[in-house]
Amino acid sequence: MQPFSFATTAQILCESGSAVRLAELCRERGAQRVLLVTDPGITHFGLLDEVLPGFAAAGLTVAVYDRVQADPPEAIVLEAVALARTLDAELVVGFGGGSSMDVAKLVALLAHPECRQGLADIYGVGNARGRRLPLLQVPTTAGTGSEVTPIAIVTTGETTKMGVVSPLLLPDLALLDADLTLGLPAAVTAATGIDAMVHAIEAYTSKLKKNPLSDLLAREALRLLAGNLDTVVHNGRNREARQAMLLGACLAGQAFANAPVAAVHALAYPLGGHFHIPHGLSNALVLPHVLGFNAEVAAPLYAELAPLVLGSKLKPGSDAQLTEQLILELADFSARSGLPTRLREAGVPQDMLGKLASDAMLQQRLLVNNPREVSEAQALAIYQAAY
Question: pTM here?
Answer without folding.
Answer: 0.96
